[in-house]
Every structure is written in structure tokens, then in C-alpha cells.
UniProtKB/TrEMBL annotation:
Lineage: Bacteria, Pseudomonadati, Pseudomonadota, Alphaproteobacteria, Hyphomicrobiales
Protein's recorded name: Guanidinium exporter
Bilayer topology: Multi-pass membrane protein
Organism: Rhizobium setariae
GO biological process: xenobiotic detoxification by transmembrane export across the plasma membrane
Any Pfam family matching the protein: Multi_Drug_Res
Annotated GO CC locations: plasma membrane
Amino acid sequence: MNWFLLFIAGLFEIGWVYALKTSDNFANLKYGMLAVFLLVLSMACLSLSLRSIPVGTAYAIWTGIGAVGAAVLGIMLFSEPATAVRMACISLIVAGVVGLKLSAA
């Protein structure tokens, strides 16, 4: 259950980053408040997942999910470049997250 909570925390992490970008520096208050709400949910799920997952592992996986998700959203929704170097770096993050998960099993 704690690994599931960590995954959900990562998804909320992606969500708040998207809402923050869409809020246009909080000019759009609806998206700004959504960003804050999703951030709180993300932190709550992360906190609950720490009951049995080591903090270093959980934090790295949480930020990894958020970083990869935000990069992919940027490419898909905000026309950010999908260069070979960028994709290779995203792959390295994914490899690190998978490695951490496997080493914590």
C-alpha cells in the first residue's frame, strides 16, 4: 500500500507542476489554487508512504516521477523540445527510479 501511495504522490506532483505552469504565475487563480491543493495532496501521500519506505528512496522516486512526468507533459502539452539529449536524460531518471525501487524491495 505504501508503494501505491508513493506512486499516487508522484502523480499529484505532476499535476501540481502542470497547474502551476497553467496558472501563469498565479495570474489565473483557479489553476494557482489547484496547484497548491495538489501539492498538499502530494506531500500527504508522500508522508504516508514513509511509514515503511526509506526516506531517501521515497524522496528520490517521488521527485523522479515528478521530473519525468513534468518533462513529458512539457513536450506533449507545451511544445518543449524533445531532443535526443533530453530524452536520454529522462531515460536515466527512469532507470534510477526503477533501480531504487528494485533495491528497496
